[in-house]
């Protein structure tokens, strides 16, 4: 994960190690290298600019302290700025005062949404919740079945339209699922919605209609980290078309660069809440900006 960026930053810092004190020219050269490292990592340009400006300002203003040499001081600043750009604190799920808490997943087809639904369901179950998985992705022929398999693996109940009932209405399925959750004492409803390969208005409208029908406590935008800063364009389209409260990054295990992770928070203003790091249900956790930053700088 993020190996390319990690290697690049490590070599930037190692060139500072022999310095006793950093001149403005040293700081300029270092921040130029950091800029290149971030651009190579496919971080969105406005984010790169803001990040580099902040590091430069802080490096220039920093006093030479007894405990840290100049290289360590720059590492410390970069670490703190990485944490900031990744969102600072971990943003936890907000649960409704009166159950069920309704969580809706939105994102492009192939982003890893259905897998994520299973992972999140398992994670919630382990925390003592009783989630209901809801198959409101009726676009893709196999999606309902795939979600049911996920549900079984996660040890949670899946609510889906009866087979043979035609295509079904995803908005109606979502609406009914809330009622089912109340009757059957599920405290969290996790709604998987349809995605398309590309952004289209019909998909956005369907997701917005489901949102209006169930008033979710949390709308999570699920995005494949491997698409780099294209994640930002997709996120912006979902912001406009559906709106969301938090981001879930998937396929971080295959992402050597880190562009999506480092761009999406700054551009959308929405926190990254969860990270998916593999195909197995256990490959999933809450997103911790500080842990991610230290991973990059390891
Ligand atoms: P959906 O169309 O958004 O519902 O996407 P799926 O959940 O069907 O996932 C698409 C593909 O990505 C599947 O082959 C998943 O096994 C795979 N996948 C999902 N999440 C991850 C992940 O975090 N890492 C890796 N390596 N593969 C993943």
From TrEMBL:
Query: Where along the chain is GTP bound?
Result: 107-114, 192-196, 250-253
Its EC number is 3.6.5.4
Look at the named UniProt entry and state the broad enzyme category this protein falls under: hydrolase
Swiss-Prot/TrEMBL catalytic activity: GTP + H2O = GDP + phosphate + H(+)
**Main location as per UniProt:** cytoplasm
Q: Where in the cell is it found?
A: Cytoplasm
GO BP terms, alphabetized: SRP-dependent cotranslational protein targeting to membrane
Say which domain of life the source belongs to.
Bacteria
Which Gene Ontology molecular function entries are recorded, alphabetically?
Answer: 7S RNA binding; GTP binding; GTPase activity
Q: Please give an example of a GO cellular component term from this record.
A: signal recognition particle
Q: Which UniProt keywords apply?
A: Cytoplasm, GTP-binding, Hydrolase, Nucleotide-binding, Ribonucleoprotein, RNA-binding, Signal recognition particle
List all membrane-crossing ranges: none
Which family does the UniProt entry place this protein in? Belongs to the GTP-binding SRP family. SRP54 subfamily.
Free-text function comment from the UniProt entry:
Involved in targeting and insertion of nascent membrane proteins into the cytoplasmic membrane. Binds to the hydrophobic signal sequence of the ribosome-nascent chain (RNC) as it emerges from the ribosomes. The SRP-RNC complex is then targeted to the cytoplasmic membrane where it interacts with the SRP receptor FtsY.
Question: Oligomeric state and partners?
Answer: Part of the signal recognition particle protein translocation system, which is composed of SRP and FtsY.
Domain comment from the record reads as follows: Composed of three domains: the N-terminal N domain, which is responsible for interactions with the ribosome, the central G domain, which binds GTP, and the C-terminal M domain, which binds the RNA and the signal sequence of the RNC.
Q: What is this protein called?
A: Signal recognition particle protein
Species whose genome carries this gene: Nonomuraea endophytica
């Amino acid at each position: 994960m993020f190996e390319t960026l990690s290697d690049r930053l490590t070599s930037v810092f190692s060139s500072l190690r022999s310095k006793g004190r950093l001149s403005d020219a040293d700081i300029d050269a270092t921040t130029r290298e950091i800029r290149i490292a971030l651009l190579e990592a496919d971080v969105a340009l406005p984010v790169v600019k803001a990040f580099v400006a902040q590091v430069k300002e802080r490096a220039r203003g920093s006093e030479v302290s007894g405990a840290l040499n100049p290289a360590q001081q720059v590492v410390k600043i970069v670490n703190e700025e990485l944490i900031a750009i990744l969102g600072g604190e971990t943003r936890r799920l907000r649960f409704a005062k009166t159950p069920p808490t309704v969580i809706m997943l939105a994102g492009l087809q192939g982003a890893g949404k259905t897998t994520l639904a299973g992972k999140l369901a398992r994670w919630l179950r382990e925390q003592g919740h009783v989630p209901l998985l809801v198959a409101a992705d009726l676009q893709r022929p196999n999606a309902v079945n795939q979600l049911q398999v996920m549900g079984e693996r996660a040890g949670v109940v899946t609510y889906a339209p009866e087979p043979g009932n035609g295509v079904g209405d995803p908005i109606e399925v979502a609406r009914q699922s809330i009622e089912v959750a109340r009757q059957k004492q599920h405290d969290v409803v996790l709604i998987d919605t349809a995605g398309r390969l590309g952004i289209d208005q019909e998909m956005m409208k369907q997701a917005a209609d489901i949102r209006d029908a169930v008033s979710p406590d949390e709308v999570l935008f699920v995005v494949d980290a491997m698409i780099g800063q294209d994640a930002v364009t997709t996120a912006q389209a979902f912001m406009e078309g559906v709106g969301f409260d938090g981001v879930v990054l998937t396929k971080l295990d295959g992402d050597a660069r880190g562009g999506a992770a480092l761009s999406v928070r700054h551009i959308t203003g929405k926190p990254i809440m969860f990270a998916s790091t593999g195909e197995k249900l256990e490959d999933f956790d809450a997103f911790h900006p500080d842990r991610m930053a230290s991973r990059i700088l390891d």
